[in-house]
Amino acid sequence: MKKYKLISLALTGSIILSAMLCGCGSKKNDQNSTAQSSVSSGTQGGDGIKLPDNGGFTTVQYQFSEDKYKTYYEIFPYSFYDSNADGIGDMNGIIQKLDYLNDGDTNTTTDLGVEGIWLMPIMESPSYHKYDVTNYMKVDEAYGTNDDFKKLLDECHKRHVDVIIDLVINHTALKHEWYQKAIEELKAGKTDGYVQYYNFEKDHTGGGWSKAGVDNWYYECQFYSGMPDLNLQNPKVREEIQNVVKYWLDMGVDGFRLDAVWWYESEKGNDASIADLKWLYDYAKTVKPDVYMVGECWKDTGTTLEFYKSGVDSFFNFFVQGATGKVNFTVNKKDALGYVQYLEKWQSQIKGNNPDAIDAQFLSNHDTARSAGYIRTLTKKRMNAALYMLAPGNPFMYYGEEICMTGSQNDPEKRKGMYWSSTDMTGYVKRIPDNTNNSLPDQSVEDAQKDENSLLNFYKRVIALRHQNPEIARGTLKAVELGDKSAAGYVTDYNGSKVMVIFNVSDKAAELNVPKDTFEIKEVRGYLLAAIGSDEEVKDAIPSSYADPMITVKDQTVKLPPYSAIVLK
Ligand SMILES: [Ca+2]
Ligand SMILES: [Ca+2]
Ligand SMILES: [Ca+2]
């Protein structure tokens, strides 16, 4: 893994210098401070530490990540953007919308600024969701060609955006030629060829198996009869999968999202599944040493921790997501302290099983309801975004989260067309098979771009703050109690460079004293204001804009308005 180059810019230095000079208050220093103001451009008068203009959003420079630490965006290609008006989103559609995700320029703010994309399955498949593959080396025709995908990769890489694709190897589609050949062989009384690719047994009773339609043979199919489970321990299956992994890595993908990893050897036990994962990851590294993999292990914490022993970089953190997950709980129960203590504990646990482990937080994905469905106010939606986007590791945002799309009744409803514009429906995917509810959110992307307070514009700020401070994703974290559970923080240390992040998840302002032996405050890197004035739950006064943030940082005392976050250095 490449080490992240910490930024040392003149701008940063000048802010520190200016802050130091400003703190003294003598006439001479005031003059110096004025002389510095053209570059430091702080927004706060008085004798505290200067705050960066506009929360630091447009004033603190950063570089694109060069290692595996990225802010990811999950895309369902079917629903994202339809470039040829055939009713189905496609590779060329994603290319057309890349500048919305990242335009490749850290100085512009029209884009979200994400540095990674997870594409849900793109390989040939008979289903709309494509989690049952018929050809592992071919992009589904509905989405385009392999060349279209290659072009998408090139366009992403030009913008410093990594691409990982879904790899679905627990099972294939029933129509996959391997399975079709296996059935032909069974009929011919042959069991040493493709039959070995799957798990066939005679007279198998119990769940997760179906009749193969030949004599009294049954085959394993843990998800449903249309998805026969592969025999991942079979050397020939492994050779096939290695060819698939090499094919896409050679084409330029940066890694894989691994579907259903707990199910790999669900009948043999976790150790066997973990061994499969280790084999897969170790092989992929021989092709691309810095390959990134994130596994879907949708089980309890103990099982997820165990799976980190495979060496795979990340497993999705299912414990922070959803209505009752840690992130929303933190806001609803005003328990910032519980959150940072959780972050410290979980980081130490996953790194205990894999020193290179990277946590993968998210609020929702294609299988769960988006957060706008369970978070009532914009204030709380923004605070939720701040919490998981300022956690260590790689956060994953499901498309549509940022414009408060909803959908919870069934899977197709959670995968509705991305709502780009209320005035121009070009590219909008009207219908996902079997979805009956096509209701649209209040704001399209176009509307949200123009609304200063929109969740979309808040996400841009928090993602920028995350990237301006590479310690947040990469550092070793220690929770810091500041006397009140509704306002707490953490100090994180990345190769000796430390930042402190403080969250105030209360409806009241907070005045906090940071012990000097815990963290010595020298600089304000940036801050976030999540509270919206019209939200009735906010009790204390809140800032009306970033020009007057109602934040002061003086000596070791930090005053924060309700629902806010700050990054100190
Ligand atoms: Ca299309
Ligand atoms: Ca940009
Ligand atoms: Ca399996």
Distance between the termini: 25 Å
CATH superfamily of the domain at 72-167 and 240-466: Glycosidases
Biggest sheet overview = 8 strands, parallel
The global form is globular
* Poorly predicted segments: 1-41
Helical content band: 25-40%
- Please, how many helices? 17
Total count of strands: 21
Q: What Rg do the Cα atoms give? A: 25 Å
Bound small molecules, by name, code or SMILES, are: calcium ion
Structural class: alpha/beta
Strand percentage lies at 15-25%
Q: Which class of the domain at 72-167 and 240-466 in CATH terms?
A: Alpha Beta
Examine the secondary-structure arrangement and name the CATH architecture of the domain at 72-167 and 240-466.
Alpha-Beta Barrel
Query: Strand sequence of the main sheet, in spatial order?
Result: 12-11-10-9-5-2-1-13
Which fold name corresponds to the CATH topology of the domain at 72-167 and 240-466? TIM Barrel
